[in-house]
Request: fold
Amino acid sequence: MQFDLIRNLPEMSALSAQWNELLAGSASHVPFLRNEYLRTWWQTLGGGEWSQGELCVITARQDGQLAGIAPLFFTTNREGEPALMLLGCIEISDYLDLIVPAQTLQPFVDGLFDYLSAMQTPAWRVLDWWNFLITSPTLPALEAAAARLGWSFTSEVLQHCPYIPLPGDWEVYLAGIDKKQRHEVRRKMRRLEIEVPSRWYIVEDEANLEAEVEAFMDMMAQDLNKRRFLTDTMRVQFRTSACAAFRAGWLQLAFLEIGGEKAAGYINFDYLNSIWVYNSAINFKFREQSPGWVLLGYLLQWANEHKRDVFDFMRGDEEYKYRFGGVDRRVVRTLIRRL
Reply:
């Protein structure tokens, strides 16, 4: 494999079609590795999470064809070390990885580490890579490559990220969750449908998209913690990434309205026959009607009826995720130091 370094956004953008095609056949295929997502992330450095960074995307070609991508940037990590980190780290990209097919994963990682070993600029000391799914085949490949070079390798299990395998039938899904929870879901949905004028919808008109995203963020900001999270820079990041996902065809922005007023919202990714739950918002005015639960019920019903395979809650161990049938798993951080 021939390895090369990309240091600027125009070069990264020029690879968009090849990048996403390679991702489609990669061992770890998640929306946070899409070229358009990582470009928007880089433009704001994760909504202001990082104060500075240098783009260091490393590509590998074999017989002239793109064969692997390490989407990296150079910065000072949380421990103050000069580090190469995965684009998307840490807070707003739930799952990250390298982009390479499973059959060439180990040769790519071995070649990548040889390339990084010789790299003097930027002068990195540690590979600090977050948010690998614990099932990622990249993890043993990284450990083997580090051992070959005598580099230290450590891993740390991080957050929970529950998901629901979907049966493709709403009633079958309900039958599979706890009886009390099943009753509550049905009762809350039925009560809302009977007692007040309500509707739910998925945003489909691009002309209204930015206004709908703004309305979603405004509703998020009713929660104090989310209001702190939504800095001006993060709002730019949120809006830009949502619009990029919409144009690429995989945004699912949904709202529940009660009496003509937005009561709850979910921003998800409808990608790879799965629903990836990115964020939610509730209008506290309607708390007694449990609008978040009701909209989640509609979205699960929609996902089953449209034959999605998985409803992925992604990072966070909130109790409701398990009450709705979430199966647990975790994400991992790896630290690799060259010696």
In short: The two ends are 24 Å apart (CA to CA). The mean pLDDT is 97.
